[in-house]
Amino acid sequence: MNKISVLLVDDHQIIIDGLKSLLSNSGEIAVVGEANNGRETLRILDLMGIDIVLLDIDMPVLNGIDTLKEIRRLGSAVKVIILSMHNEAGMIKSLINLGANGYLLKSSSQEEVVSAIRKVAAGQSYFSTEVTLSLLNKPQNKLHFDQQTELLTDRETEIVRLIAEGFSNKEIGEKLFISHRTVDTHRTNLMKKLNVSNIAGLISYAIKNGMV
After folding, report:
1. 9 plus 83 within the same structural domain
2. Number of Cβ atoms within 10 Å of the Cβ of 50
3. Which of 55, 68, 111, 191 is the most buried (most CB within 10 A)?
4. Count of domains observed in the chain
């Protein structure tokens, strides 16, 4: 039985070393290369046949988004799983549209990483986190806003929607003609008002209530 060949791509060597150790426990996966930026990744892919690329987003020289664009432009059949700290809805949707076969958060367990590699190698897709699953399975008909939504001001509703669409504080501020610090204050107040603890909670709330 041929092992699944994997290329690890991250600009932090400690992440690569941790992934190598994690994947070494799986008898069906072989880490055959590593790279610290997108340009190295493309060079390795040009030299070797690889089944799966585990790809970070934030990297110097050539980031993960541009690397994925180039991989798909070149027509490579390699499967790409994004492994990132980013869980913004807009970011995830963009990477799916660019041809990512999977999306994992760096908080994923060893079992989830191995499972994702197996499934993607078998021709399936794998997307981590409840937020991502909500995005992929979003119902066609928008849901009615719940009672909490009625407590939101028009400005708060607008900010939640823009956060769920993947815009940064700076970008939201530019769109709404307010400072990024004001956006940050609104975001903190929204998390308290909606009883969520992070941005993922705000995004999930926006999706469930048909804001995006």
Report:
1. yes
2. 19
3. 55
4. 2
